[in-house]
Amino acid sequence: MKNNNIHTLVNKQTGELAFKIFEFDNIHHFDHIQRLNYFSLVFIHEGSGETIADFNSYPYEKDYWFSFSPYQPFMFKEKTKTKGFVIYFHTDFFCIIKHQEDIACNGVLFNNIYDAPFVVIDAPTKPTVNFIMDAIIKNIENNELPRPKGYGVSPHKAKH
Question: Which end of the chain is more exposed for a tag (fewer CB within 10 A), N or C?
Answer without folding.
Answer: C
